[in-house]
Each structure stands twice: as C-alpha cells, then as structure tokens.
Amino acid sequence: MSRHATTGEVLALIRSGEAVTRADIGRVTGLSRPAVSLRVGELLERGLVVERTDAPSTGGRPPVRLEFNAAGGVVLVAALGASRTRVAVCDLAGNELAGRRFHIDVEQGPDVVLPLLMDTWEELLGDRPRSAVRGVGMGVPATVEFAEGRTESARVMASWTGVVIPPLIRQRFDVPVLVDNDVNVLAVGEHRGAYREETGDLLFVKISTRIGAGIVAAGSILRGALGAAGEIGHIPVRDGGGVLCRCGNIDCVDSVASGTALLRELRAAGKDVKTIDDVTALVRAGDAETMAMVREAGRRIGEVLAGAVNILNPSVVVLGGDVAEAFGPLVSSIREVVYRRSTALATRRLRIEPSRLGAAAGISGCAVMVLDHVLSARAVDDSL
C-alpha cells in the first residue's frame, strides 16, 4: 500500500482484521509512526475505532489492539414490499438493534409512506441522538435509477414513478441516503449473509406479488446502465394466453405466473381465494386444479430462468418470496425446466435453492448497501 494511505484506508485495514495494532498499520502501509498515530486518532475521535488492551502479552506491556466500533453509530433501513414493510435500526456491523414489521399499502404514495417510515425510525432510535445516524438504506418494489435514487417503472408503486427519494429523507435525516430495487437488496443481503464464502455469482429470484431478480456477479450487485438489470418479470413466455401486463406488453411472466396471476386464475376458476395463504391451504388439501396451476406457473418461471442461467451462468439460483416459500410443486417445476432447457455447462454445478435468510435478507441487504457506502475509504476521508 502507498506510504500515503488515508484514514479511510486505515479503517478498512482495521475492519478487515489485516491490521489490528499501530505497528501492523505501519508495516502494511509504510506510514511513519506519527502518521499512523494521526490517522488512528481521527478514527478514535469519530468513534469508528476503539482501543483494547486485553490482547495476550508475550512479555512486557500488552499491545494496544485496535477494533472497529460497531456501536459507533447506526444506520436506518427499510425494505418496502407490495403489502409488507420491514423497518429497522442497525449498528455499523449491520446487526439489527430494533425493528418493526407492518402492513402498509405503498400505493398511498410517498407523501404518506415516507413520513410513516421516518416516524418509525424516530421511535426505534429511542434515546439515541439523531447525530448517531450515519446513513439510510431503502429497498423499494420498483426499478431505481441508483445514482439519483429515482424510482422508475414501479411494479406495484405506480404513484411513486419518477420520485427522487433521497432529498425527501434528508429533510429530516441529513445523511447519505441510498435507494435500490427491492430484489437487488434481497440479493445483496442473501449473498453477503449466506453465500459470500461459497460463491461470487448468484441470481436471486423473488416470486411474490410480482416477479423480479437481483444479480450478484463477481461479488457485486449488477444494476445495469440505468438500474433495470434483473427485470425478468417482463420477459414474455410462450402460450401465455394473451394476458396484458402492467408494463404494456403481452404475456410477461410476471403477468401469468406471479402470486397476483395465480390468485386471478384461481378466482376465474371459481376458487374462493383472497391471499396466497388461501392458495397454500388448497395445495395442502391436495386440490388437483390448484396444484396444476401452481406447477404451470413454475414451468413458465423456469422457462424464463433457463435463459437467464444461460446468459449469466450463476453458481446458485436462490428462490425467495411468499410464493416460492409456500409451494414445493412450483419450485420443483422451476428446477425441472431450468435443468432441461439450460446448457449442460451452465447447469453442471448449478444449485437451485430456497432463500436461507427469508424476509430478513431485505433488512440485511439495505444495511450492507448503506454501510459499504458510508464506511468506504473515500466516504470516511470526505467526512473528516
């Protein structure tokens, strides 16, 4: 490392465990002892690092060990869904300190939903001062132009289309605000929390009210040029029956195989179903017509995923969301079609698995997203 290693770069060394004493920092960076003391002093002053003297001694005074201070601040996170939202306060290691889950109709729009989120964060902060907040991370069920935090082509949030969210949050919490697609944050949370040591290439597919995907390639989320990567819900399928999708096209997999589509088809067949739980009850009861519709939805999703597997060659496809978690026959159909229609090389080591983290992946992914930003070397240096 350069002899001019910055304070932010020193923090990265401490967080990774590569350098845990002043002597380690000097050895790794080549910085002089006074320069090391200056940088460590800045980190101590900002509460990002603490000193420990409980390290084992080999004789004489035990070395002072430097440790990243996860309690040195908090981040505010929210994972918005079509019907359910999770809000939390996390420490600087991404651990949830306080959280709340509730049902909210996001179609009420940002003028209603954002104040509710901010009021909830205020309550969850408790006695912690607002100055402890280092950043905000949000996942929303819409395509997001990440650099600006602008929602576009909202899947279930039509009233949010074109809204730039960060300035609205910064009116109350004047900190960096990052907003991304809900499935992207699920993919990040799932990868970082459950698969980081296993693979850098993961495709997370959320099958719920709507269908979407998040792509982790070489360990990083792939957003595309304008944030539209992973919108597999709008890939058309064969023999869809001419169903008009909310995007304006015909027979998108989202419009014929999502939870919304299943409910629509079952109601048309005379089934008394109001929620996915009602569909689950029919599946458990062995209702043949419901089972057939669920398997057909899986076949259609598998058809689209086979193309994605051929293009992206992930190590693992993770299936999450209410529908994927509820229906074994749907998952079985997806697996069958993907392995049959993808290339032999792409599926040689491919695993198709249910989510390991479940709904918790959303909060985890939002926390990772904002922490990777506010604790980056550049952000730390800019804040000094």
From TrEMBL:
One of its GO terms (molecular function) is kinase activity. It holds the Pfam family MarR_2. Keywords: Kinase, Transferase. Residues 11-54 form the HTH marR-type domain. SUPFAM superfamilies: Actin-like ATPase domain, Winged helix' DNA-binding domain. InterPro entries: ATPase_NBD, HTH_MarR-typ, ROK, Tscrpt_reg_HTH_AsnC-type_CS, WH-like_DNA-bd_sf, WH_DNA-bd_sf. Belongs to the ROK (NagC/XylR) family. PANTHER family: GLUCOKINASE (PTHR18964:SF173), ROK (REPRESSOR, ORF, KINASE) FAMILY (PTHR18964). This is Putative NBD/HSP70 family sugar kinase. It comes from Nonomuraea soli.
